[in-house]
Amino acid sequence: MTAHYEVRGSVAVITLDNPPVNGLGFATRSACAAGVERAEADPAVTAVVITGAGKAFSGGADIKEFGSPKALAEPNLLSLIAVVENCSKPVVAAIHSVCMGGGLELSLGCHYRVAQAGTKVALPEVKLGLLPGAGGTQRLPRALGVEPALNMIVSGEPVEAQMLAMVPGQKLFDKVVDADVLGAAIQFAQEVAEKRPLPKVRDLKARHPNPDAYFQFARNMVGGMSKNYPAPLRCLEAVAGAVKLKFDDGMRAEREGFAALMLTPESKALRHLFFAERVASKIADVPEDTPLRTIAKVGVIGAGTMGGGISMNFLNAGLPVTILETKQEALDRGVATIKKNYEAQVKKGKLKEDKYAARLALLSTTLSYDDLKDCDLIIEAVFEEIGVKEAVFKQLDAVAKPGAILASNTSTLDVDKIASFTKRPQDVVGMHFFSPANVMKLLEVVRGKETAKDVLATVMAIGKKIKKTAVVSGVCDGFIGNRMIEQYSRQAGFLLDEGCTPQQVDKAVEKFGFAMGPFRMGDLAGNDIGWAIRKRRAVERATMKYSASADRLCELGRFGQKTGAGWYDYLPGKRDAIPSPVVDEMLAKHREAIGAKKRDISDEEIVHRLVFALVNEAAHLLEEGIAQRASDVDMVYLTGYGFPIWRGGPMCYADTLGLFNVVQAMKRFAQNPMDDGEFWKPAPLLARLVAEGKSFT
Fold first, then answer.
1. Is the four-CA dihedral 178, 173, 72, 689 of positive or negative sign?
2. Which one of 38, 220, 683, 695 is at 20 to 30 Å from 226 when CA atoms are compared?
3. Are 90 and 64 in contact (CB under 8 A)?
4. For the chain, what percent of residues have pLDDT higher than 90?
């Protein structure tokens, strides 16, 4: 976690060494600055090369120090860049593999830059709701040109070094080499050792032939594409400052912009997401070095919508898949759907023909369980009924090889009960994919009471391999996501009882930023699914209160898009949700039957009742140990349920508002005569956090 110093001939080589991406933490910054000063003081040294150990030049800030005093401790990154830039001997950056964020800003402070082809170069700060804060918005436009620099800064996307080297007039790279970038940089340093004055990027001019018109055009474009995110426009204004202001004035404006963005809820949410995504894979009692089981072949039971989508994930990752069905027609339909999905990608240019052919070559089908005997992982995606699961797992237990992982794609059923159908409960785990499974990022990994640690570690690693965000859940009805969404849906029903229309609720929630409101979502998923759950609840938890409006809807046969009518009407072949007079009449009669008085309800109340219903149930999940951490809950809702990313998930949003304020609002909602006195009772964890002045995240 430092930087190493050595002298090769007359060139001092400083190697950043802070795995995995040479983050510019305090120790690394200090050692790098000390190395430059040591080279300055050594008369035998004529030039300096800065490079990175391992597989990166530098990925930028050290995420382990985010938010800590060390992140700002001197020498901070600005101070280190000043030391490098003001060195009296030429400093050459030997850039390879990854050069991003503060790493790119450090290289721009060097006098020269030699890069290896294939190096991914980026200023990705905008993805954290920030702008580059160590001169990136001032130096990159000077070195690369205003337009390409603005594109990089506003998008945050990496570009390969050789592509940037082709930009006309660029002075970002002095040389691009195919291999041995350190050797090339040392040689280059020797060649320029006596050249004076030393070139500084800050002394270059950032020019554009028509800056006013260009930046106005860019404002219109960027503003239209980033309405919920303040950072892109702030980035644009900082780059405009590089053109219009003196360098030092531009640097001050950049720092002011950075400081302002740090305080925005959007940046807080995006930074929370950044860390939540990385910590979700960590399981408290499962060591990171837990040996993994080999997964070389996958079996999938069921060729329906879920089974086909699940299979595509593994085919995309280069793993052979065998799909099992009970009838040949079902297999044929499933394979045809997989082909259709791939062909659509080929048509759009997202998939090459040879890759399509390679993926299909990995797919085999069968009607016999015996053909799954050599699979390392077998996932069932059959009908959501415990008797059906029992039959499947008993057959799997009989044919699967020892050590094979047996997974259920169940969305609500008891994984421990499913495991009990086998003689190997330690090998059973839940892998709850979300529909469409080949698109949705979320994978809920359900840990049974006997699930082995190496099974859990292996499934989490496989989740990463197939590019899913895997989140661990304990066993309960609905796991994390669906258990929470039930309370959200209950509250949506109560809003109808009190006078809201489905479209009023949906519009308020979608304006807040959800991809889809609860009633449009119900129509898409099928209202009969919720109906079946409520019938089960009536037996299992008779005291749980629901609005009867959804049952009245289903009694009319309005199951949603699949029947052409649900909470909304739908025209044949179209998905546009049209407000329904039939539903309006049904709701009016329903309110009359239950003696409910219609009242005006604000969008804010609608949103907070729905979101706080999620938050309170999540607090129960955390208290019970079903969810490991609040940030895991946020990952579930951001990647599986369409919660607005710029709000950071329900728990982050609640923290932003203040948990005291959340509970105060819940107390007001509980005064509603329609409330049963229990719904808005704060979960013990939520009440405790408020009493202690703490937050979830």
1. negative
2. 695
3. no
4. 89
Q: Tell me the DSSP string of 474-505.
A: -SSTTTTHHHHHHHHHHHHHHHHHTT--HHHH
Using an 8 Å Cβ cutoff, are 233 and 219 in contact? yes
Distances (CA, A) of 663 to 20, 115, 287, 495, 685: 42, 55, 37, 19, 12
Q: What is the pLDDT of residues 36-56, one digit of tens each?
A: 999 999 999 999 999 999 999
- Whether residue 105 lies in the annotated active site: yes
Measure the CA–CA gap between 129 and 154, rounded to whole angstroms. Answer: 11
Q: Where are the alpha helices (DSSP H) in 567-629?
A: 581-594, 603-624
Residue 627 carries which DSSP code?
B
Active-site residue (options: 105, 380, 444, 486): 105
- Residue 412 is given by DSSP the state S
Query: How many Å separate Cα 78 from the centre of its chain?
Result: 30
List 364's β-bridge partners, or say none.
Answer: 322
The one-letter code for the residue type at 157 is E
Of the candidates 147, 145, 164, which has an alpha carbon nearest to the alpha carbon of residue 204? 145
Q: Could you give the CA distance from residue 473 to residue 334 in angstroms, rounded to a whole number?
A: 29
CA of 187: how far to CAs of 11, 15, 57, 229, in Å? 9, 16, 18, 45
3-state secondary structure of 365: strand
Is residue 520 within 8 A of residue 508, CB to CB? The reply is: no
The whole-angstrom separation of Cα 96 and Cα 161 is 9
Q: What is the pTM of this model?
A: 0.91
What H or E segment, with its residue span, contains residue 406?
A: strand 405-408
Please tell me what DSSP assigns to residue 597.
P
The yes-or-no answer on residue 384 being catalytic is no
Q: How confident is the model at residue 70 (pLDDT cuts 50, 70, 90)?
A: confident
> In this structure, how many other beta carbons lie within 10 angstroms of the beta carbon of residue 591?
17
Tell me whether the omega of the peptide bond preceding residue 684 falls within 30 degrees of 0, making it cis.
no
Question: Do 111 and 65 touch, CB atoms closer than 8 A?
Answer: no
Strand ranges (DSSP E) for 489-575?
Answer: 568-569
